[in-house]
Amino acid sequence: MQIVKERIVSPSQIDDEYLCPICYHLLWKPVECQNCQRLFCKSCIDECLQEKPDACPLCRHYVEKRCSPMFYALLSKFKIECENKINGCEQVSTYETLERHQNAECQYKMKTCRGCEKNVLEKEFLQHERSCGQVKIECTRCKRVYKQKQKHEQMECLINMLDTSNKRGERLESKIEHLEQYVQELETTLHLYIVGGFGGGVVHDVSIASLPTSWDIIYDFNYGHVTTVDELRALRSRCKKQIIVGAIQGNSSNVLRIAAMGPSDILLLDSPLNEPTKFGNVNWYLTPNYSFGFAPACSTINCNCADYNERENSDNRLSWHLSGDGGYRAGVFKDLVHNTDWRKIIMAEK
Fold first, then answer.
1. Smallest Cα–Cα separation from 116: which of 130, 104, 102, 105?
2. Which residues cross the membrane (predicted)?
3. How far is it, in rounded angstroms, from Cα 158 to Cα 86?
4. Using CA atoms, how far apart are residues 318 and 193, in angstroms rounded to an integer?
5. Do residues 256 and 328 touch, judged by C-beta distance below 8 A?
6. If we measure between CA atoms, which residue out of 94, 100, 64 comes closest to residue 81?
7. Domain boundaries, the chain
8. Is 5-81 in CATH node 3.30.1300.10?
9. Nearest residue to 294 via CA among 323, 328, 325
10. Would you report the helix, strand and coil content of the chain in percent, each value rounded to 5?
11. Coil vs helix vs strand at 81
């Protein structure tokens, strides 16, 4: 708060000791510099210290000290006009009561109307806003926002309430539909984990006929086919949450000799060489220019071009080249790069 000298009701000249040497107005909530013993408005000196910490504007080294009660008593003798005198306020307050009057009591403050945005005196503000046609009101029943000058008929209110209720119903139906779909997917996944044995990780000799009918083959090529990263990436848009990757021996067979299930985001992996990503009990990798495949989570991956590890879980590894050759291995069966009897299989939910 700044109090210019002209607002002080005094029969005599105001001495400089009552004025702040920073703003040159009447000291407001003053504090003292312990070194030079000069008084400043608390807000003025704080603003200066933000720019130059610990630097007094007068003696260059500021150490704050509380203003003496005696000086406060002298300030309390001043009578001060309200800052809203220009708006018609004739109140003259003591130094101690000025802040309360201007902040909470004065009816000559200007407030801005929420509707027309005109500045209106505090004492006229409520009446003005009640009559201002631009002020917006929210109906407590239908929640519609309208201007005061607009009519809001009972029938319109009922229609709005019905429309809101219908929209809530539609949103609820949509949530129920998504929930039912999620439950269905969860049941399918649970069935695969329990019946198909996929919950344990890598599985063997699983008949496709034993899987839920919602699962379909989306990738079926013999091991001599050259699989590319782009091929695998493109399959992601045809998948939901889970996929099955495996191998079938025999052109007419429908038995997955080796397979594993994991999230469809496996098809988007960009794995550093020999640094697989673990999903459940399976380590998955898709390393461009090297290979794509899986092994048990407890196993390390040993890729030169494809996973050739023979020391651990060799029967639970699948690896397809992504470097311009065909598939490489399906369990213990290796060097299948030109084989046309073994088939690469990827399955997804319809």
1. 130
2. none
3. 49
4. 20
5. no
6. 94
7. 5-81, 200-349
8. no
9. 328
10. 30, 25, 40
11. strand
pLDDT at 189: 61
Q: What is the pLDDT of residues 127-178, one digit of tens each?
A: 998 888 888 887 877 777 878 777 777 777 877 778 878 888 888 988 988 8
Q: Which residue has the tokens 């019905």?
A: 162
Instruction: Give the chain's largest Cα–Cα span.
Output: 114
H or E stretch covering 171? helix 154-194
65 φ, ψ to 5°? -140, 145
What are 152's two structure tokens? 């809001």
In order, the DSSP letters of 232-256 are HHHHGGG--SEEEEEEEESTT--EE
Could you tell me whether strands 291-296 and 327-330 are parallel, antiparallel, or unpaired per DSSP bridges?
A: unpaired
Q: Is 17 exposed, middle or buried (0-12, 13-18, 19+ CB in 10 A)?
A: exposed
Residue type, 230: D
Q: Locate tokens 């092994």: which residue? A: 295
pLDDT in tens, 218-262: 999 999 999 999 999 999 999 988 899 999 999 999 999 999 998
What's the pTM?
0.49
Cα–Cα dist 274/38, whole Å: 74
